[in-house]
Specification:
Layout (H helix, E strand, L loop, with lengths): L1 H13 L7 E3 L2 E3 L5 E2 L1 E5 L20 H14 L3 E4 L9 H9 L3 E5 L20 H14 L5 E8 L5 H4 L3 H18 L6 E6 L2 H12 L14 E6 L13 H7 L7 E6 L11 H5 L2 H4 L2 E6 L12 E4 L4 E4 L1 H11 L3 H4 L39 H7 L21 E2 L50 H4 L2 E2 L11 E2 L2 H13 L1
Helix pairs in contact: 2-3, 4-6
The chain binds 2-acetamido-2-deoxy-beta-D-glucopyranose (5 copies).
The site of one 2-acetamido-2-deoxy-beta-D-glucopyranose has 3 residues, from loops.
Subcellular location: Cell membrane
Protein name: 1,3-beta-glucanosyltransferase
Membrane topology: Lipid-anchor; GPI-anchor
């Protein structure tokens, strides 16, 4: 009897472990009115191949895999995952509910490398049509009811050079407008929508100004991005604020009117990675401007950014050296203090600049603020909602134990691995799940020798060289896991 009522009491709280975050001034704010710093990891096991339409599979479709990974990510200490490539028509209820119970938010890309899955960076008007826009709306429908849905990315690195900067901006702002209008009309809460930029310094700040300004100077302008993020790989090895160019980012975004954060970081030019940037990102100067960041990436794929390696034959996972290093860097920080900064009064933050071509520095950048109209048929879908609606909902999770084996780098098995469900209002932080793992000092190899899930994913093998951008002093390697593939697939689609 006692046991039973305890179970009921426990399960009653499970469906609501995290409460939705809101945006106040230029920050995310948690239910206790504290400014929320994203401590994230990019989550796309299998790379682009992690999405398989024929098998009805995407990174959030298999509860057993999510249980395994949510437990590992809890141990690492993160509170957010970013997922790039989702199928709106598969059921995500169990995975979303597991991550929710684990205190982990989700930032979701609405795009996909599938045909009609993204806006192209070349001739974008050819890819802006009803089937594509409907897809972005369908992802919103699929994830809008989960309390741990943190934000949607309307685009990822679609502007990455002078040529794309000359064509894409009005289309990208139009896609953001359409998704924001859909959220306003069909969601119970204001889920933020924004753009994830390539850290190509020639176009970065123009993109930032272009997407975050307000056409009439009013912050509720429907085409203005609610958030702005960048994929930044300029801190390599044991770097510092100056050498990495981080100082220029803090300065460049210092007047932001929306939350700014790293949607990817973790340069791997120097291996094993040291993740000394973690101390900088959550340090005082940085966190007065930025809202944290997302480490690229959870699984080891062909481009070698993995924290863990997955054996796709038996779904066992082996932790890699970078996992232990990153965990140690997170554990060094005082999270009570970092996540305990009270929000300022709403409306007291920097005001958005009024959209004006004067905001744009580069001659190559299309700073036209007259946006393309919605494509034919889209106004109807926007008015009536996606049909049929693939909406999900949080469900009760009772099983938290990982079905799959998880091993330390030395091959020893981590026993009793399970998600530790958190209570209401809590998000995950280092130390919450204190499952015993190997001590980092004894980890030598930087890559496991198990079969990885790297396979033949074309999306994960390309490491783009974006340092060619003139005037950028810092070499940056952008995995562009999603973007590389988007461009390839979108090109083929025509
Ligand atoms: C819109 O998306 C839904 C969900 O994926 C799909 O069932 C429907 O066929 C799509 N409609 C159009 C017009 O593309
Ligand atoms: C931020 O605003 C201050 C005060 O208006 C201004 O002096 C400064 O140039 C601005 N910085 C940037 C990067 O726009
Ligand atoms: C701006 O875009 C609109 C809509 O595409 C177009 O009609 C107009 O000519 C453009 N203005 C300039 C100056 O290019
Ligand atoms: C790695 O290789 C060693 C020696 O061949 C083997 O004993 C060990 O089990 C392997 N580890 C994994 C995780 O496969
Ligand atoms: C990247 O591009 C720059 C400029 O085009 C070039 O100097 C550099 O050698 C390239 N690096 C790699 C690794 O290809």
């Amino acid at each position: 009897m006692l046991i039973q009522s305890t179970l009921i009491a426990l399960s009653a709280t499970l469906a609501a472990a995290v409460k939705p975050l809101t945006v106040k001034n230029q920050f995310f704010v948690d239910p206790n009115d504290n400014i929320f710093q994203i401590v994230g990891v990019a989550y796309q096991p299998g790379g682009s191949a992690g999405y398989n339409a024929a098998l009805g599979k995407d990174p959030l479709s298999d509860g057993d895999i999510c249980r395994r990974d949510a437990a590992i990510l809890q141990i690492l200490g993160v509170n957010t995952i970013r997922v790039y490539n989702l199928n709106p028509d598969v059921n995500h209820d169990e995975c979303a509910s597991i991550f929710n119970a684990a205190g982990i938010y989700m930032i979701l890309d609405v795009n996909s490398p599938q045909v009609a899955g993204s806006l192209q960076n070349y001739n974008p008007w050819e890819s802006y049509y009803d089937t594509y826009v409907n897809r972005t709306f369908a992802v919103v429908e699929a994830f809008k009811n989960y309390d741990n849905t943190l934000a949607f990315f309307s685009g990822n690195e679609v502007i990455n050079d002078a040529s794309s900067a000359g064509q894409v901006p009005p289309y990208m702002r139009a896609v953001t407008r359409d998704i924001k209008n859909y959220v306003a009309k069909h969601c119970d809460r204001k889920i933020p929508v924004g753009y994830s930029a390539a850290d190509v310094r020639d176009v970065l700040f123009d993109s930032f100004e272009y997407f975050t300004c307000a056409e009439d100077g009013k912050s509720d302008d429907p085409s203005r991005a609610d958030i702005f993020a960048l994929n930044s790989y300029s801190w390599c090895g044991d770097s510092d604020m100056q050498k990495s160019g981080y100082v220029d980012l803090v300065e460049g975004f210092s007047n932001t009117s929306v939350p700014v954060f790293y949607s990817e970081y973790g340069c791997n030019e120097v291996k094993p990675r040291m993740f000394t940037e973690v101390g900088a990102i959550y340090g005082k100067d940085f966190s007065q401007v930025f809202s944290g960041g997302i480490v690229y990436e959870y699984t080891e794929e062909e481009n070698s950014y993995g924290l863990v390696s997955v054996n796709t034959k038996d779904q066992s996972v082996t932790l890699l050296k970078d996992f232990y290093t990153l965990k140690d860097q997170f554990a060094k920080l005082d999270w009570k203090k970092i996540q305990g900064v009270k929000s300022a009064k709403d409306g007291s933050g920097p005001k958005p600049p009024k959209c004006d071509s004067k905001l744009i520095q580069s001659k190559d950048f299309d700073g036209n603020f007259t946006l393309p109209a919605m494509p034919p048929n889209v106004p109807k879908i926007l008015a009536n909602g996606v049909s049929p609606k693939p909406s999900g909902k949080l469900i009760e999770v009772t099983n938290f134990k990982s079905k799959y084996t998880v091993k330390n780098a030395d091959g020893s098995v981590i026993s009793d691995l399970a998600v530790k469900p958190l209570s209401n209002d809590e998000s995950n932080s280092p130390g919450t799940n204190d499952a015993k793992i190997q001590s980092s000092g004894s980890v030598t190899s930087s890559s496991g020798n198990s079969t990885t899930s790297g396979s033949s994913s074309e999306a994960t093998s390309d490491a783009k060289n974006t340092s060619g951008a003139a005037g950028s002093a810092v070499a940056m390697t952008v995995p562009a896991m999603a973007m590389g593939a988007f461009a390839i697939f979108a090109g083929l689609a025509l």
